[in-house]
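Study this one:
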Amino acid sequence: MNDTPKNPFEAMMQQAHDMARAFNPALENFSPKGFESLWPTMPKDVMELVFGNAFNKGGLDAKTRLLLTLAGLTMQGAQADTALRQTVRHAIAAGAKKQEIVETIGQMSVFAGIPAMTRALELAREAMGGENEDDEA
C-alpha cells in the first residue's frame, strides 16, 4: 500500500499528523470532539479580555463578536462542527440568548443558503441542548 499523499493538502495533513505523533504518541488518536470536551466554554471575563473591550475600549463586546463569528462560520457552510458548537456555547456564556443565536444563523440563509443555515441550526441545537435559558430575561 502506498502511503504517499496524493495532493498538497493530504501531504500537509500527513506532516502535521506525524509531527503531533512525534511530540506525543497519544495525539495519534486525537479527535476534535475530545478537544471540545476539554474546554467547553471560556469564562466571560476571559472572553472580554481576549475578544472584548480590554484592548479596544468602546469597541464590540464579546457577545457581539461571538455572534459575528457564528455568522462567519455559517457563511462557510457550517462545516466546522466543533468551532460552531463552541462558538454557540461561548456566546451563551457571554450573554447571548437562544433567540439571538437563531436569528444570527437565520440571517445568514440569505447569503450562505438554506443548507448552510440548516446545518448551523442543527449544530447550534446540539450545543444549546442542555441549556434551560429563560429567553425573556
